[in-house]
Amino acid sequence: MAKVHLRKITRDNLRECLALQVDDWQKCLVATTAQSLAEAYVNSNLFPFAVYEAFACGYEQPEVPMVGFTMYEIVAGVGFIMRLMIDRKHQRRGYGRATMLEVIRRLKLCPDIEQAKDVFPVAKRVLLTAYADTDAAIESINSARLDYYLLKPWDPPEERLYPVLDDLLDDWIAAFRPTL
Ligand SMILES: CC(C)(COP(=O)(O)OP(=O)(O)OC[C@H]1O[C@@H](n2cnc3c(N)ncnc32)[C@H](O)[C@@H]1OP(=O)(O)O)[C@@H](O)C(=O)NCCC(=O)NCCS
Predict the structure, then answer these.
(1) Least confident of 25-39, 74-88, 144-158
(2) 154: which residues sit within 8 A by CB, 6+ positions away?
(3) 94 CA to middle of ligand 1, Å?
(4) What is the residue with the minimal CA distance to atom 29 of ligand 1?
(5) 1-118 — its CATH code?
(6) 117 alpha-carbon distance from chain centroid
(7) What is the mean pLDDT of the chain?
(8) Which of 31, 67, 84, 95 could form a disulfide with 35 if both were Cys (CB 3.0 to 4.6 A apart)?
(9) Pocket of ligand 1 (CB under 6 A)
């Protein structure tokens, strides 16, 4: 099974990161690395990382090519996986799955997130995904107690995304009992 190593984007690997590409048909599914890095520059809650094969770990300069990019966000103690892309030359070799697992592992290590489970036990959960995989959907609905499962692309958001979020907010407001 593929294993990956996540590294910060620095002056040394910036160009390689900007050169990462997905297939043409995938371009509507994920922002470019340039856009993601620009977002991270102005938002300190965003954590962008370059993805390498695991044996780059421990070396000052990785001797292997960068295979992808991921970025997560931590807001009020809750972690969100905002971006995941594997360069088209390296897709279908298990790096995407391995990166997802590594990001989840890191987010679980973040004490804020453990705390958030106690602070927001009734938080609504929505999975936004690019692929129609029914087994994965059922597994996520059961294990993460998802409230909704949305497929990308969800454009236009006012038709596909906002009604779902409005429904969840309505549910939440209906059930909310303010502490006096
Ligand atoms: C999605 C993406 C990250 C997957 O990366 P990857 O390294 O090719 O994925 P893996 O090799 O780890 O495969 C993981 C699973 O996804 C499946 N998969 C990967 N690409 C797929 C595709 N184009 N269509 C259907 N299934 C696909 C694999 O078959 C595998 O499932 P399996 O273990 O049941 O066989 C990569 O295709 C990508 O960067 N896509 C463009 C950006 C994108 O869509 N990002 C997600 C936005 S939500």
Answers:
(1) 144-158
(2) 128, 160, 161
(3) 8
(4) 92
(5) 3.40.630.30
(6) 18
(7) 85
(8) 31
(9) 22, 26, 29-30, 84-86, 91-97, 129-131, 152
